């Protein structure tokens, strides 16, 4: 691939608790119609919090042609990812059968992999099930998420799951970007997926990180995150290829930055977060003040929002608008960063910055410019932030190439 | 011009020894790493053998204080990473820590920690009686994160899950990051730890040796093979542009000439659909051409076969199709160690390095009646001039990779 190759996003698909199409997602996000509510997957009576962002009545047969539970043999996370992949490929205007004719690859980020299958297996270890569930055991391998996509579309390129926890799908975008730049893939089906997991709900609840009511990122009154689920998939290809087939382009992947705090498994650290942002800006070749909007990791916890805001303030000051879709959707774990990428792409398309819901007064200590009302404005550059346990940081910068015709 | 990437440090934890020298000494003798499972009670299951790491003491390599925060697998990969850095005499400090990345592959990483945490929440009177200190161990990126915390590497940190091809994909991605200038040093590795949960993934599919009756054994390429034997371990490699270790007068274990990936396809929708041997052969052919080599310049093949006959047959037929019966010397790390999933490709890389270093190819354990004619090394080690090694790796799901490793000039 030549040195002047550019990577663009030409499709997106999502399965979220506020909609399974981008129009509905965008509308609900801007309106602040919350996607979380009482948890149905498990009995929460012994927990301190009872809300989660589940996708109610998800039926894979709605998205996956000829879906057959037994024949397809997919775990819930794979079902979510594959459904979103179908939507993204259709959105990109690529005929399914042509995927196997190009070098198409896939990379899907995840925090918990096939958590539902693992948790079904655990019922045996806990003595709830008297017999081991062999089908569940067969589904526990994380790479099955991407292989389910590879197999469905008979694609010949790289197929790896990326398990960098809650920043996994920004990492997947970075990984896919490198594949296209190195000429090892022509099309990449990229994103993230996770199922609502009992283990993760329990863990965050035990850490006191979950809110009992509303996720209010950067708010003075913020009191935690919401554990959610979902899938967000985008289609990446070279600009040359996209133009040749007259594809509708959402945005260019202008750059990315990946870093590790190398500090602590759960405590955040501003230098590591800043490094990812600086790497992304350097890669995109732009100055901080050229970023029009930051779609923050913004989980709504005291610690995340404090350190993220500190890093944003240090690099971008307090003028750059910051939004956070987790206020409406909750934390979709492995899908979260890709959902941020899609949010930015939609913001560019609509010339509109979506607001942070539930946050009325921004924590004055944070000193960043939170978007509390939807703002009509053109967006040239937007940034997706993703951070994770283990100090894994990933930042992706999109450029609206439709705004500035070259 | 394309950058030349070399291996400047190695760390390993395996059933046949930890540390590269111990590994090399055992590997060249085709030492047996297969034994009865001791890390969980396997008496209720049909298959009782594994390539288990026994008697390993991570406190040789890691401070005891941080070991408390790690599960078994994480202690394996962190130990391997510490060894690799020491071996490469690599210093990670303020001057370079932003340019050192960690690329770790795993397929069942953290699975036991996830399962234990969740199981405890189900068994306690209240689910919130779980130990919060155990929660961070349940993210699949815990291993990679601990490697960064231990070494101070602040560059890329990514966790890749790719089944049997994971190590080659991790190396592939590391090479991309080094070549595109995103990193100066890649600490790349893979890890798996043996536990009941990971074991059940394979036993539930009936692919472990002895599942269909007969004696349990690990016998890649043999007609009597009746399944694979699961294994564990970790390998970490330090990858750099070769000028860097050369400048410091450090040895280079080998140069990564090329890594290629393809998909052998699946004929149907079933999980373990078999990829086709001729597509496998064509992927390996492209790999060798891309490395600017001809077929007869390959001296040794560090194979992927694991004793699961349907799987071995595809590789054997593909290699036969390409090379015929006078093929390069075929060796197998899995015959000594078993199938270590993500780490399998890493052990194959190490065996290729050992062979080239010692100019001796170790024999394949338990190989008496091959499933297809190839130039296998059997009964005793083969002395041979070796410069270029082919390391094929493929996953039953269809992902197929190969790597060419050459002696560094």
SSE blueprint:
The complex is a heterodimer of chains A (406) and B (409).
Chain A: E1 7-15, H1 22-31, E2 37-38, E3 51-52, H2 69-72, H3 76-91, E4 104-109, H4 115-125, H5 134-138, H6 144-153, E5 159-162, H7 168-181, E6 187-194, H8 198-206, E7 230-238, H9 239-244, E8 251-260, H10 270-284, E9 293-295, H11 302-316, E10 321-323, H12 326-329, H13 336-350, E11 352-353, E12 369-370, E13 375-376, E14 381-388, E15 392-399
Parallel strand pairs in A: 4-5, 4-6, 9-10, 9-14, 10-12
Antiparallel strand pairs in A: 1-7, 1-8, 2-3, 6-7, 8-15, 11-13, 14-15
Helix pairs in contact in A: 3-6, 7-13, 10-11
Chain B: E1 5-14, E2 17-18, H1 20-28, E3 35-36, E4 49-50, H2 64-67, H3 72-87, E5 100-105, H4 111-123, H5 142-151, E6 157-161, H6 166-179, E7 185-192, H7 196-203, E8 233-241, H8 243-247, E9 254-263, H9 277-290, E10 300-302, H10 309-323, E11 329-331, H11 334-337, H12 344-358, E12 360-361, E13 382-383, E14 388-394, E15 399-406
Parallel strand pairs in B: 5-6, 5-7, 10-11, 10-14
Antiparallel strand pairs in B: 1-2, 1-8, 1-9, 3-4, 7-8, 9-15, 12-13, 14-15
Total helices of chain B: the number is 12
CATH class of the largest domain in chain B: Alpha Beta
The geometry of chain A reads as globular
**What would you call the quaternary organization?**
heterodimer
Task: Explain this structure.
Chain A is of the alpha/beta class and 406 residues long. Chain A folds into two domains: 7-244, 3-Layer(aba) Sandwich (Peroxisomal Thiolase, Chain A, domain 1), CATH 3.40.47; 255-399, Peroxisomal Thiolase, Chain A, domain 1 (3-Layer(aba) Sandwich), CATH 3.40.47. Chain A contains 13 helices and 15 strands. In chain A, strands 5-4-6-7-1-8-15-14-9-10-12 form an eleven-stranded mixed β-sheet, sandwiched between helices. In chain A, strands 2-3 form a two-stranded antiparallel ribbon. A two-stranded antiparallel ribbon of chain A has the order 11-13. The longest helix of chain A is centred in the N-terminal third of the chain and has 16 residues, at 76-91. Chain A is globular. By secondary structure, chain B is of the alpha/beta class. Chain B has helices at 20-28, 64-67, 72-87, 111-123, 142-151, 166-179, 196-203, 243-247, 277-290, 309-323, 334-337, 344-358; strands at residues 5-14, 17-18, 35-36, 49-50, 100-105, 157-161, 185-192, 233-241, 254-263, 300-302, 329-331, 360-361, 382-383, 388-394, 399-406. In chain B, the strands form three sheets. In chain B, strands 1, 2, 5, 6, 7, 8, 9, 10, 11, 14 and 15 form an eleven-stranded mixed β-sheet that branches. A two-stranded antiparallel ribbon of chain B has the order 3-4. Chain B has a two-stranded antiparallel sheet with strand order 12-13. In chain B, a hairpin with a 2-residue loop joins β1 and β2 (17-18). The radius of gyration of chain B is 20 Å and the shape is globular. The two termini of chain B are 18 Å apart. The chains are: A alpha/beta (406), B alpha/beta (409).
């Amino acid at each position: 691939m030549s040195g002047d190759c550019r990577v663009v996003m030409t499709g997106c698909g999502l399965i979220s608790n506020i909609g399974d199409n981008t129009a509905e997602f965008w509308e609900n996000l801007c309106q602040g119609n919350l996607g979380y509510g009482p948890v149905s997957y498990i009995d929460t009576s012994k927990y301190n919090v009872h809300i989660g962002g589940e996708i109610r009545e998800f039926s894979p047969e709605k998205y996956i042609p000829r879906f057959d539970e037994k024949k397809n043999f997919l775990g819930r996370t794979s079902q979510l990812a594959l459904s979103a992949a179908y939507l993204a490929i259709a959105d990109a205007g690529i005929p399914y059968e042509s995927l196997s004719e190009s070098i198409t690859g896939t990379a899907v980020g995840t925090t918990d992999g096939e958590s539902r299958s693992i948790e079904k297996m655990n019922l045996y270890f806990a003595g709830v099930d008297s017999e081991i569930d062999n089908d569940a055991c067969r589904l526990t391998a994380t790479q099955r998420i991407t292989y389910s996509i590879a197999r469905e579309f008979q694609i010949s390129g790289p197929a790896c799951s990326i398990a960098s926890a809650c920043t996994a799908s920004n990492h997947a975008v970075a990984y896919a970007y490198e594949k296209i730049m190195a000429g090892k893939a022509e099309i990449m089906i990229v994103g993230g997926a996770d199922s609502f997991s009992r283990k993760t709900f329990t863990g965050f609840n035990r850490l006191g990180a979950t809110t009992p009511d509303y996720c209010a990122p950067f708010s003075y009154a913020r009191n935690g995150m919401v554990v959610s689920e979902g899938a967000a998939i985008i289609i990446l290809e070279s600009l040359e290829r996209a133009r040749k087939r007259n594809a509708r382009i959402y945005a260019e992947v202008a750059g990315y930055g990946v870093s590790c705090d190398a500090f602590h498994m759960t405590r955040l650290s501003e230098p590591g977060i800043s490094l990812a942002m600086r790497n992304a800006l350097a890669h995109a070749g732009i100055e901080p003040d050229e970023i029009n909007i930051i779609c923050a990791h913004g989980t709504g916890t005291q610690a995340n929002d404090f350190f993220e805001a500190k890093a944003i303030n240090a690099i971008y000051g307090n003028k750059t608008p910051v939004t956070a879709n987790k206020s409406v959707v909750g934390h979709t774990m492995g899908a979260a960063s890709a959902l941020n990428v899609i949010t930015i792409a939609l913001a560019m398309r609509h010339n509109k910055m979506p607001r942070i819901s539930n946050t009325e007064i921004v924590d004055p200590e944070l000193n960043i410019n939170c978007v509390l009302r939807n703002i009509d404005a053109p967006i040239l550059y937007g940034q997706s932030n993703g951070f994770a346990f283990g100090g894994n940081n990933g930042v992706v910068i999109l450029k609206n190439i439709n705004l500035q015709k070259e | 011009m394309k950058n030349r990437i070399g291996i400047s440090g190695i760390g390993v934890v395996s059933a046949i020894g930890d540390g590269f020298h111990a590994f090399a000494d055992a590997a060249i003798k085709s030492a047996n790493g297969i034994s009865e499972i001791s890390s969980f009670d396997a008496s209720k299951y049909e298959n009782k053998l594994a390539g288990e790491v026994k008697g390993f003491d991570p406190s040789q390599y890691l401070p005891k204080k941080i070991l408390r925060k790690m599960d078994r697998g994480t202690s394996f990969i962190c130990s391997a990473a510490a060894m690799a850095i020491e071996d490469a005499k690599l210093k990670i400090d303020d001057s370079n820590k932003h340019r050192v990345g960690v690329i770790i592959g795993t397929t069942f990483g953290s699975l036991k920690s996830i399962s234990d945490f969740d199981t405890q929440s189900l068994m306690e009177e209240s689910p919130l009686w779980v130990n919060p200190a155990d929660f961070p161990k349940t993210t699949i990126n815990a291993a990679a994160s601990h490697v960064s915390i231990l070494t101070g590497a602040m560059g890329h940190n990514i966790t890749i899950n790719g089944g049997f091809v994971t190590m080659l994909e991790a190396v592939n991605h590391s090479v991309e990051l080094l070549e595109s200038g995103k990193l100066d040093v890649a600490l790349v590795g893979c890890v798996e730890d043996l536990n009941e949960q990971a074991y059940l993934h394979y036993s539930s599919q009936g692919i472990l040796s002895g599942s269909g009756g007969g004696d349990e054994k690990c016998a890649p390429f043999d007609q009597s093979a009746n399944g694979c034997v699961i294994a564990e371990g970790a390998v970490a490699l330090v990858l750099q542009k070769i000028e860097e270790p050369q400048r410091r007068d450090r040895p280079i274990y080998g140069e990564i000439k090329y890594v290629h990936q393809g998909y052998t396809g699946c004929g149907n929708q079933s999980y373990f659909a078999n990829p086709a041997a001729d597509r496998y052969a064509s992927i390996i052919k492209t790999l060798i051409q891309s490395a600017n080599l001809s077929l007869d310049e390959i001296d040794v093949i560090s194979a992927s076969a694991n004793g699961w006959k349907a799987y071995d047959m595809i590789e054997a037929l593909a290699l036969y199709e390409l090379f015929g019966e006078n093929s390069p010397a075929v060796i197998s790390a899995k015959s000594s160690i078993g199938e270590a999933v993500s780490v399998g490709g890493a052990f194959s890389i190490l065996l290729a390095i050992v062979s080239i270093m010692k100019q001796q190819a170790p024999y394949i354990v338990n190989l008496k009646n091959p499933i297809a004619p190839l130039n296998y090394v059997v009964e005793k080690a083969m002395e041979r001039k070796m410069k270029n090694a082919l390391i094929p790796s493929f996953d039953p799901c269809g992902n197929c990779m190969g790597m060419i490793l050459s002696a560094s000039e």
